[in-house]
Amino acid sequence: MELSKRLHAVASLVTEGASVADIGTDHGYIPIYLIEKGISPRAIAMDINRGPLKRAKIHIRERGMEEVIETRLSDGLSALLPGETDTMIAAGMGGGLVIRILDGNPEVTQSLKEFILQPQSEIRKVREYLSRNGYLTVAEDMVEEDGKFYPMMKVVHGKESVHDEAELLYGRKLLEARHPVLYRYLMREKGMKQKIREGLLTQGGSRSRQRLMELEEELALTELALERYRI
């Protein structure tokens, strides 16, 4: 099974030997890959929609993996029992939905050992939620694919020290590692924000001034993050 760069990076965060529940499995590609590579002994592919789950079943059957990959129709973790798997994967969905899934079934989340998360939006909100609700980020990665940037993380139960604003926006582990993909993302963000600022400087009106103030704050945070690459 060949995975996209994004999905391969997500799968690479799974601890070897861990059983997995893949939430929003879509085609079932990640569970199939984890079994094929001997990373996971078994997996549960879960999705809220019947169509993606049917596609996943077809792919699983084609590879003769029905004994080790089960499919379940599920809204988030609702169809998973406490202790059934070690790891939860939630990739390719909005940050608000990731939080709702983590919040929705506390008995299940408490029984899980690790969480592989790849929010497509609101990542600052996700990081803040994790740090305030007893989750510790132990690894982060970021890939660029087809011109888009995808940050992701592995978290476990534990106490997280307070993040500063740059860490919430861009990821403490990524900044500590001076991750090259994050650097490219920061440079792109800086260039885009500077261009928008130039345009706003030529405009009048209270709304433009307000946006300019917000933009200056955003640029300052981007610069603060870039400073960590110069230390």
TrEMBL record:
<dbReference type="InterPro" id="IPR029063">
    <property type="entry name" value="SAM-dependent_MTases_sf"/>
</dbReference>
<dbReference type="Pfam" id="PF12847">
    <property type="entry name" value="Methyltransf_18"/>
</dbReference>
<keyword id="KW-0489">Methyltransferase</keyword>
<protein>
    <submittedName>
        <fullName>Class I SAM-dependent methyltransferase</fullName>
    </submittedName>
</protein>
<dbReference type="InterPro" id="IPR006901">
    <property type="entry name" value="TrmK"/>
</dbReference>
<keyword id="KW-0808">Transferase</keyword>
<dbReference type="GO" id="GO:0032259">
    <property type="term" value="P:methylation"/>
</dbReference>
<dbReference type="GO" id="GO:0008168">
    <property type="term" value="F:methyltransferase activity"/>
</dbReference>
